[in-house]
Design a protein that fits this description.
This protein has one helix spanning 42-53; strands at residues 2-8, 13-20, 56-58, 69-71. The chain is 15% helix and 26% strand. By secondary structure, the chain is α+β, with helices and mostly antiparallel strands. The strands form 2 sheets. A two-stranded antiparallel ribbon has the order 1-2. Strands 3-4 form a two-stranded antiparallel ribbon. The protein has one domain.
């Protein structure tokens, strides 16, 4: 949790106070992408093709300060560890 403050430069007082919550670096997230029965498969195929070509995605806000950037890894079948 990070507390942020916006100061009014004119009168040197707090104009806005807010908190932001972010995940720690190296947090592991996972998701399943499954085609719904009877739906067009083009959308999922295009997404997978895009992520294989460019695996970096930005989720959430604060892109300009480097937060929210992730790299994706696609596994198409169960792999034993």
């Amino acid at each position: 949790m990070q507390t942020r403050n916006f100061l009014d430069r004119k009168n040197k007082q707090s104009a806005n106070l807010w908190t932001e919550e972010s995940l720690p670096p190296d947090t592991l997230l996972y998701a399943l992408l499954i085609q719904r029965p009877g739906k067009n498969t083009d959308d999922l195929s295009q997404l997978l093709k895009h992520l294989q070509h460019d695996p970096y995605i930005q989720i959430g806000g604060n892109e300009t300060v480097g937060q929210g950037w992730m790299i994706t890894s696609i596994h198409t079948r169960w792999e034993s560890i």
